[in-house]
Amino acid sequence: MIYQYVDTWKKGDAIGNEVRAISDYLKKNGIDNLVVKCNPKTYQEGAIHFDEFEKKVKKDDLLLFHFAWFVPENLWKKFKAFPCKKIMIYHNVTPAHFFEPYDSRESKTSINARQQLQSGAKFFDAAWGVSQYNADELVSLGYKNVSVVPLLISFSDYKQEPNRALIEQLKDGYTNILFVGRMVPNKKFEDIIAAFAEYKKLNAKSRLILVGNDDMKPYVNKLHNFCRDQEIPDVHFRAHCPFADILAYYSSADLFLCMSEHEGFCVPVVEAMVFDVPVMAYDACAVPDTMGDGGICFTDKDPAKVASIMHALLSDPKMIEEMRENQKKVIERFGSEKILSEMITKLKAFQA
Question: Which of 85, 115, 179, 263 lies 20 to 30 angstroms, CA to CA, from 241?
Answer without folding.
Answer: 263
